[in-house]
Amino acid sequence: MAAERPWRPARDGVQVDVRLTPRGGRDAVDGVEMLANGRAILKIRVRAAPNGGEANGALMRLVAKSLGVAPSQVRLLSGTTGRIKRLVIAGDGGALVAALEKIAG
Q1: Domain for residue 29, yes or no?
Q2: Is residue 37 part of a domain?
Q3: Domains contained in the chain, number
Q4: Contact between 67 and 58 (Cβ < 8 Å)
Q5: What is the pLDDT of residue 2?
Q6: SS3 label, residue 91
Q7: Residue 63: CATH number of its domain
Q8: Which of 41, 59, 94, 97 is in the most buried spot, having the most CB atoms within 10 Å?
């Protein structure tokens, strides 16, 4: 059985569950982690502070750059003020899943 992944197909793209660490010292994708409730998340850290949406913006730019898509293709679906967020990334679902597998390690 394949390990649970924090992404799933969505209409015209994929949805990704993320745990964001603002002021993380660097901008990086730290891999997949299982939360205590069994939910898989993609761990991401950014240098930006969580002020005025700076960390969310940095998150979306980092995800776009890591997946090779335009920043306008990444939207924050939920979790604006929380650490756990859901992103939706527009594009070819198969190519996005392959790119996510690669960056998740």
Answers
A1: yes
A2: yes
A3: 1
A4: no
A5: 47
A6: coil
A7: 3.30.1200.10
A8: 59
Asked if residue 44 is part of any domain, the answer here is yes
Strand partners, 90: 13
Cβ(101)–Cβ(16) under 8 Å?
no
Q: CA-CA distance, 65 to 28, in Å (whole number)?
A: 11
User: Domain span at residue 97?
Assistant: 7-104
Per DSSP, what are the bridge partners of residue 7? 16
How far is it, in rounded angstroms, from Cα 94 to Cα 13?
Answer: 8
pLDDT for res 105: 77
pLDDT (tens, 9 = 90+) of the chain, 105 residues, equals 346 899 999 888 999 999 999 999 999 999 999 999 999 999 999 999 999 999 999 999 999 999 999 999 999 999 999 999 999 999 999 999 999 999 987
Chain Cα centroid distance, residue 17: 6
Q: How many Cα atoms sit within 13 Å of 78 on the Cβ side?
A: 5
Asked if residue 1 is part of any domain, the answer here is no
The identity of residue 30, as a single letter, is D
